[in-house]
Design a protein that fits this description.
Aspartate Aminotransferase, domain 2, binds pyridoxal-5'-phosphate, about 45% helix, alpha/beta
């Protein structure tokens, strides 16, 4: 009888070996195979590493200021009331689960572009925006930089602010896109280094891509003022550089989605063809839904159509088409006037809680008798504050006070509550005064 195995003379391999012997042999072949043996270990994710250490800490005093997600005053994840309402409305519609169009639903895409540029802005009126749904802000950045990598006619060089979100250089590296840094944060003033930034941008080669955080800069919490944005826009135009905005926190900085879009709108008004990555992770609390958008502004509708067609080709080859749940929620909120009003209230409430925590933290550190200046805590804006703690002080505050944050001294103000603010302030005073 043949079992379908290769015959060795008159005897089959199956007859020579029992099933368990074969399993042992196959296991040995697999474990000794070296196909992937040369893969080096990747660097661990810093934020997740902090979370793991925090979870293992049994101290009742522990505080996690590393996580980049909004928390309520009880330190709990927060689902926005507008999002809950949108979910109910979607549920009542008994929708199907068919594939979305490759670029996402038209109504979703239009709503994203209007939110960023303004309802009656020129690109919206002229339809010169190629906007596609993406896998949150990260997906938008990746798709946008990949597009630049493929179609950019000028020097392929990205200029990132120093410092910047750790994933920006990482994405460039993945795409083999060379990058440089322009001065951004001034450790002396703990504010924006406007002169340094302008000088560096003036010497960037024509056609360089300039990455700008639209608002609530991560990790520093330092944003340029309106006049400074105007100055950056002027330099970027005169030097023929290309602005790519990362807008991951629209509404989170000032509490107003329009004010937080001011930088993008200044550039558009000045005639720039910006690229824009949007995320709804923070301002709608849709972290795990992974919903965002990428816009490439073009000079005319015909170019926008061609750009759109190429973005679709890219999407088709990566994940075919986008997820529908998160984008339905966003669309529901942005296209239903009553719900949008509720959302604007929700965003403001989150931003206001952060602003209040900044004030309380500063007052408590100053009240504890600190001799240092702490105005930067309230001058900075958005979810993050660059405290100015040194790596050694960060080590101490973690070991002695069970407070977890990144080595660069960045804290997520969203992790501070009315219950822990006094303790955090006292601990910061302790490690900065002795
Ligand atoms: C500056 C910046 N850009 C983009 C993102 C992207 O986030 P997500 O992919 O969750 O939308 C983040 C998230 O922390 C960020 O801080």
């Amino acid at each position: 009888m043949s079992l379908g195995f290769v015959k060795f003379g008159a005897t089959t391999a199956a007859q020579l070996m029992s099933r368990s012997q074969m399993d042992v042999m196959n296991h040995a072949v697999r474990t000794q195979s070296m196909w992937w043996g040369s893969v080096p270990m990747g660097a661990p994710d810093t934020i997740l590493g902090i979370r793991d250490k925090y979870n293992k800490d049994s101290s009742p005093k522990k505080v996690n200021l590393g996580v980049g997600a909004y928390r309520d005053d009880d330190g709990k994840p927060f689902v926005l009331p507008s999002v809950r309402k949108a979910e109910e409305l979607i549920y009542q519609k008994c929708m199907n689960h068919e594939y979305a169009p490759i670029a996402g639903e038209v109504a979703f895409r239009e709503a994203c572009a209007k939110l960023a540029f303004g309802d009656c802005s020129q690109p919206i009126v002229d339809k010169t925006n190629a906007t596609v749904q993406t896998l949150s802000g990260t997906g938008a950045l990746r798709l946008g930089l990949d597009f630049i990598n493929r179609y950019w006619q000028k020097k392929r060089e990205v200029w990132l602010p120093n410092p910047t979100w750790f994933n920006h250089p990482q994405i460039c590296d993945m795409l083999c896109l060379p990058y440089k840094k322009y001065r951004y944060y001034d450790p002396k003033t703990k504010g924006f280094d406007v002169n340094g930034a302008c000088e560096d941008l003036c010497r960037a080669p024509e056609g360089s891509v300039i990455l700008l955080h639209a608002c609530a800069h991560n990790p520093t919490g330092v944003d340029p003022k309106k006049e400074e944005w105007e100055c950056l826009s002027k330099i970027i135009k005169e030097k023929k550089l290309f602005p790519f905005f990362d807008m991951a926190y629209q509404g989170f900085a000032t509490g107003s989605v329009d004010r937080d879009a001011q930088a993008v709108r200044i550039f558009v008004k000045d005639g720039h063809q910006v690229m824009l990555a949007q995320s709804f992770a923070k301002n709608m609390g849709l972290y795990g839904e992974r919903v965002g958008a990428l816009t490439v502004l073009c000079g005319d509708k015909c170019t926008a159509d061609k750009v759109m067609s190429q973005l679709k080709v890219s999407i088709r080859t990566i994940y075919s088409n986008p997820a529908i749940n998160g984008s339905r929620i966003v669309k529901e909120i942005l296209t239903n006037a009553e719900l949008k009003q509720q959302w604007l209230v929700d965003v403001k409430a989150m931003a206001d809680r952060i602003i209040t925590m900044r004030k309380m933290l500063r007052e408590a550190i100053e009240g504890a008798g600190s001799k240092h200046k702490w105005n930067h805590i309230t001058d900075q804006i958005g979810m993050f504050c660059y405290t100015g703690l040194t790596p050694a002080q960060v080590d101490r505050i973690t070991k002695e006070c069970h407070i977890y944050l990144t080595k660069d001294g960045r804290i997520s103000v969203a992790g501070i509550t009315t219950k822990n603010v006094a303790y955090v302030a006292e601990s910061i005073h302790k490690v900065t005064s002795s």
